[in-house]
Amino acid sequence: MNRPAVLLLDDSPAVHERVRKAFDGQPVELEATDSWVDAKARLLERTPPDLLILDLQMPTIDGRTFGRVIKRRLPMPIVVYSSETAQHIAEAVAYVGAEGGVSKSAPDEELVRQVMVLLGRARDKTAADAARPEAGGERAP
Questions:
Q1: Which of 14, 58, 82, 113 has the least C-beta neighbours within 10 A?
Q2: How far is the CA of 35 from the CAs of 13, 117, 122, in angstroms?
Q3: Which contiguous run of DSSP H or E holds residue 29?
Q4: How far is Cα 26 from Cα 89, in angstroms, rounded to an integer?
Q5: In Å, how far are 61, 66, 119 from 40, measured between CA atoms?
Q6: How far is Cα 93 from Cα 80, in angstroms, rounded to an integer?
Q7: Rounded to an integer, what distance in angstroms lies between the CA atom of residue 67 and that of residue 70?
Q8: Per residue, what are the HEC states of 58-89?
Q9: What is the DSSP letter of 2?
Q10: Distance between CA atoms of 92 and 69, rounded to whole angstroms?
Q11: In the beta sheet, which residues pair with residue 6?
């Protein structure tokens, strides 16, 4: 079975390194980018990852707006990952339609926990959808 793909969009190389270390040993393929243009291409023009970790404060684009656009186009879980206050993160989660939010001041394990829980839910939903009979199919007498 393939490992789920996670994309981190954050403009800080230090955050990329921190998140890579946090996910070391986890059964995920973590990719990171500091470019919303690159993230958009990965999300909309290629096979999208299974989950997006999204920074809110980017130099050339607002993470809230980017996340909301992506969420409207792809049914993928998003975790907001920000240094903003807990209230601002909660508001961003609601605005984007994200499934989770973690402060960068929280222990790294919190981000890993939220991502792994959401990946498990997404995998369970995919398996349930695959097991569901198609509409109009044969029914038992």
A1: 14
A2: 12, 26, 26
A3: strand 29-33
A4: 25
A5: 12, 9, 20
A6: 6
A7: 5
A8: CCCCEHHHHHHHHHHHCCCCEEEEECCCHHHH
A9: P
A10: 13
A11: 30, 51
pTM for the whole structure: 0.85
Amino acid at 66: F
User: Is the Cβ–Cβ distance between 28 and 115 less than 8 Å?
Assistant: yes
Angle at 90 between CA 86 and CA 96, to 5 degrees: 140
Tens digit of each residue's pLDDT (9 = 90 or more) over 21-77:
999 999 999 999 999 999 999 999 888 999 999 999 988 889 999 999 999 999 999
- Whether 49 and 6 have beta carbons less than 8 Å apart is answered as yes
Q: How far is CA 66 from CA 7, 90, 106, in A?
A: 14, 16, 23
pLDDT score of 5: 96
Q: Which residues pair with 30 in a beta bridge?
A: 6
Burial 89-98, CB ≥16 within 10 A → b, else e: beebbeebeb
